[in-house]
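Me: I keep going back and forth on a fold encoding question. No explanation is needed for now; the record alone will do.

Assistant:
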Amino acid sequence: MTVPVLLVAGFLGAGKTTLVSHLLAHAEGRRIAAVVNDFGAVDIDAALIAQSTGTVVSLRNGCICCSLQGDLMRTLAQLIRRDPVPDAIVIETSGASDPAEIVRTLLDPVIYAATPLDTVVSVIDARHLADRPALADDALWRAQLAAADFVIVAKTDLVDAAELAGIRAEVARWKPPCSTFDAVRGAVPLDLLFHRGEPAAAPPREGRRLPAAERFDSLSWTASRPLSLARFQAAIGRLTPGLLRAKGFVTFDHAPHRPMLFQLVGARATIIASPVATRDEVCARLVLIWEAGCLDRDDALRLLGDAVAPPGEAAGVSTGRA
């Protein structure tokens, strides 16, 4: 069993703790464990988050991107040995942390096999950026933004429309608009940050509106034959600019008895061996999520359909990531 990890980064005082507290308080049945990196000897953030959940681990007086990295790995190992096992783990980094090194650590094949990095979120303080536009030139601020799959612009209720437009324009210099979302008091759709798990054995092929937010659409898709890896890579490459995330199980024609887990968050895609076997003669099960209007459902169905290997076609072997 794997436990996905959500990494929450952001500058000092951006609103990370508020976001994590909201996620834990509105977990919608998920068992979520939180790991908090307080940069100091007093675990203020952990104490605040503990009001929302009892499963909080504090890593104090150091930075998990360097001096506390070993502590983080040991903490993750301990969390996945708990009974019951968490459904997800949220890591709140210190405001002084560059998440790039943490991301590299979490993508280590051994670590990823047990606690795969699912989503990286960077929180931006709208009021702070409006008051200090020079913050956008800070190397750490830019590094936190660069590492993110999604950007959460917090405290949008504290700026006026003109200020918010300027903030969005600044963020758009570094990230596509479809990966940026506003939040007041940490309220963001959980379906954007956490996937509910594997798709159903036979999900409907038509799209549906996500209940968490009217602005998102999703599409469930299945295939009864293995996929061509090269064609699947091409399809995902075409779809990625409009997608927010995608996840599911796939098998390829060159290895039809070896199921793989595919995950796409933002522009970061991974394909690893799946801990779940195929079932019901379904060779591929995918869920795609996008912002309404950013993707054409018929095009998505056509591209995915083209990725299915025709009967009797010789299997071609290709390497790399989708």
Summary: The chain has two domains: 5-192, 200-306. The first strand starts at residue 5 and ends at 10. Confidence is low (pLDDT under 50) at residues 39-52, 59-68, 196-213, 314-322.
